[in-house]
Design goal:
Elements (H helix, E strand, L loop, with lengths): L1 E8 L2 E9 H16 L14 H7 L2 H23 L9 E6 L13 E9 L13 E3 L7 H14 L2 E4 L9 E10 L2 E12 L9 H5 L7 E7 L9 E15 L5 H7 L5 H35 L6 H15 L5 H27 L3 E3 H14 L4 H10 L3 H18 L3 E3 L9 H4 L11 E3 L29
Parallel strand pairs: 5-12
Antiparallel strand pairs: 1-2, 2-4, 3-4, 6-10, 7-8, 7-10, 9-10, 11-13
Length: 469
């Protein structure tokens, strides 16, 4: 098999493949066997019809079509692997010649020839990581830091108390709600508790409830994001039945005894100071990761395939019923472009650093995802495998791990310029010694189906590779 690649633009190539008749022969033989088992010819047992009779009855062209369809995905995958391409979307395949039939030059072809236009991951020019310096915040703990820790602890022991005043940010409001679309009621809830400022209900809810007292109602417009009327503009009437504020217990020795193993507030504050310091030290690793990623995204030229972005945005808007919302379309384009730039960068980084994902790392990540989805791990992993999404998950793990590995190459300093050792949080290269049964990320799948869409990576799952990734 011969193949050649023509670069059309930084994110698209044309792959030309030629497959000899000898290489196609196993698929032709299988095609004859398959067709022989499907047709009935007088004088021959089913499955025993010879090729010459099949050519007469069904036609050589039908046999070759079956053979090409059966072998095309494998030939494409082999060519992708040999040319070290990284497809980002299904290819546009055009078969231009089939052995024994007319080719694109109107002559009888001697080999299978096809082209595939492919949206591919662009080649990036990554900087030498050893030359990069990332600055993070220091770990000095202030009295304000301790106060934040203490307030968080007090909130765990707080109580909600009804108040006779208009609702304000942070208050809890018990409410009744009725939603109508074109004067038709589409939803109704009663007795729901909502904290103003949480932003986890309808858009516009925070503004509507602010300054509303118990027993008062107001109406506002919003766009529904779920259910049968997703994307529709609804008129929502909300009634506050009660307004409550969170009251924190006093920070005294009595509270220290109740909330901790200490007898005095001084002792509790000292423990909170220690915890705040540890949290800041761990936070340096997360901060270093984020700032390194920001630095690379800013410094590296990352071409993004516009067609792929537009397709993702169209699918997103269609799912929400917001095809005509130009403002939301612009937001979706920006979000999709940013996400794709990040993925391209991290995939390239993982390849550059030869990142491998061991089976136990992948399993750990999948178990964590199963908990996020509220499913039993074995059932969840089986479902992901059946859907062909395990490779996509492995890619997510590799991307997260690539940042940890990259951080070991850069210099991380605090505001005073002191180098910081983050190995406790990001590990060392020794930790990544090959383990039994690694899942190698970066090479195209030899069994990839050229017509199959790339698996969708689950969103929102957190990796447990290390304490920060």
């Amino acid at each position: 098999m011969k193949s050649a690649v023509e670069t059309l633009d930084p994110t698209k190539v044309r792959l030309t493949v030629e497959v000899t008749l000898d290489e196609l022969q196993p698929n032709i033989s299988d095609a004859y066997k398959h067709i022989a088992g499907q047709i009935t010819v007088p004088g021959f047992r089913k499955g025993k019809v010879p090729p010459r009779i099949i050519d007469q009855r069904v036609g050589r062209a039908a046999v070759m079509e079956h053979a090409v369809n059966a072998g095309l995905s494998q030939f494409y995958a082999n060519a992708v692997r040999e040319n070290r391409l990284h497809p980002l979307a299904p290819p546009d395949v055009d078969v231009t010649a089939v052995p024994g039939l007319s080719g694109d030059d109107d002559q009888t072809a001697e080999e299978l020839r096809f082209t595939a236009e492919i949206v591919v991951r662009p080649v990036l020019d990554l900087p030498d990581l050893s030359t990069l310096t990332v600055e993070v915040d220091g770990t000095e703990v202030t009295d304000d830091d301790v106060a934040v820790q203490l307030d968080a602890l007090r909130e765990r022991f707080s109580t909600l108390v009804g108040v006779d005043r208009p609702a304000a940010d942070g208050d809890f409001v018990a409410l009744d709600l009725v939603a109508k679309v074109d004067d038709e009621q589409v939803d109704q809830v009663s007795g729901v508790s909502y904290r103003i400022g949480s932003g986890n209900m309808l858009e516009g809810m925070d503004e509507a409830l602010t300054d509303l007292s118990a027993g008062e109602s107001t109406t506002f417009e919003t766009r529904l994001v779920g259910g049968d009327h997703a994307g529709s503009t609804a008129l929502v009437t909300v009634t506050a039945t009660a307004v409550k504020e969170r009251q924190l217990p006093e920070a005294n020795d009595e509270f220290a005894e109740m909330a901790s193993e200490f007898d005095t507030m001084d002792e509790l504050r000292e423990r909170l100071r220690t915890q705040a310091g540890a949290a800041k030290a761990a936070g340096q690793a997360s901060q270093a990761r984020d700032r390194l990623l920001e630095r690379l995204l800013a410094d590296v030229d990352i071409p993004v395939p516009a067609d792929l972005v537009q397709a993702e945005v169209a699918e997103h808007l269609s799912a929400e019923g917001r095809e005509d919302d130009d403002e939301h379309r612009a937001e979706a384009v920006e979000e999709s472009t940013t996400a794709l730039r990040r993925q391209i960068l991290l995939d390239t980084l993982a390849d550059s650093l030869k990142v491998q994902v061991a089976q136990d790392e992948l399993l750990q990540y999948l178990v964590g995802m199963s908990q996020d989805y509220g499913m039993e791990p074995t059932t969840f992993i089986s479902m992901m495998s059946e859907r062909g999404q395990v490779a996509s998950v492995a890619g997510e793990v590799a991307r997260a791990k690539s940042l940890a590995v990259a951080l070991r190459r850069v210099t991380v300093v605090d505001p005073a310029g002191t180098t910081i050792d983050l190995s406790t949080y990001i590990g060392t290269d020794t930790d990544d010694a090959p383990a039994p049964g690694p899942v190698v990320i970066g090479e195209p799948d030899a069994e990839a189906d050229p017509s199959a869409p790339p698996p969708a990576g689950p969103a929102g799952a957190a990796s447990d590779i290390s304490s920060i990734f």
